[in-house]
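Could you join me in thinking about how sequence relates to backbone shape in a protein? Label the sequence line and the structure token line clearly, so we can match residues to local backbone shapes. Once you have written the record down, we can walk along the chain together.
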Amino acid sequence: MTYGLGETDAERIEHLNVIRSIQDETGIIRAFIPWSFSPKNTDMEHIIPATGVDYLRMVAIARIYLDNVKYIQPDGLPRA
């Protein structure tokens, strides 16, 4: 899941809810990898990049909420 595109916390949770629902119905999702968007050198440079705190929050919430996904991969560290 890419985050840090200017979405709200509620929109992030809604995205996690969709993932959880799909996993409940199908069991097809093997891993969840949060990936922060890096706006540098894009047409979206006006967006404030996600911070390390944003990243830690996303991983922590995913580990709690997506308890039906076997692997939560803390792989997408924010990039400057």
Notes: Residues 9-26 form the longest helix (18 residues). The chain has two helices and four strands. The helical segments are 9-26, 52-65. The chain has a mean pLDDT of 89.
